[in-house]
Amino acid sequence: MATKAATSVAVDFARIYTSLGLGKETIASLQAFRKRNSEAQRLSVQYASQPTTVDLSHYRAILKNKAVVDEAEKTLKEFKPVTYDVSAHLRAIETFEAKAVEKAQETEQKIDLELKELQATLANIEDARPFDELTVEDVGKAHPRLIEVVETMMKKGKWTVPGAL
Q1: For the residues of 8-39, what is the DSSP string, one character each?
Q2: How far apart (Å, rounded) are the C-alpha atoms in residues 13 and 33?
Q3: How far is C-alpha 61 from the geometric centre of its chain's CA atoms?
Q4: Is 41 in contact with 51 (CB distance < 8 Å)?
Q5: For all residues of the chain together, what is the average pLDDT?
Q6: Backbone angles phi, psi at 146, to 5 degrees
Q7: What are the b/e assignments for 92-101, b being 16+ CB within 10 Å?
């Protein structure tokens, strides 16, 4: 079962918050989950440390109605814990876990692709020539439509650019 293995592994939440670039809502949800989890663990340890036996002789000594104590003792002796088949729930949890892992891997691939694109864009920006070193020919090669527009304006005798001062 994946859930037993998952409980034995410590999760580094600080690393998750900083390295994955999660949104505020996601971080808040994780923190709420972490709080609920720690509270459940605390209660589990607290209840596990409490005694689980009932001292019926104490109640026999202080109660006048011994029949109540006898009935309680009979009920305790006849008590059989009921076992439930939780395999369907565990399968649903494992299916959900598998889907969550699959989504996380897809997200990781998308983020990796986006990072590569951003790195390429950054490298392109860093390798580009400064603006003041560009020539008219460089701009014309990059945007041939600008050359056509300027030539058309010159033919029509327009020497100012619309919208420019």
Answers
A1: HSPP-HHHHHHHTT--HHHHHHHHHHHHHHHH
A2: 11
A3: 57
A4: no
A5: 86
A6: -60, -40
A7: eeeeeeeeee
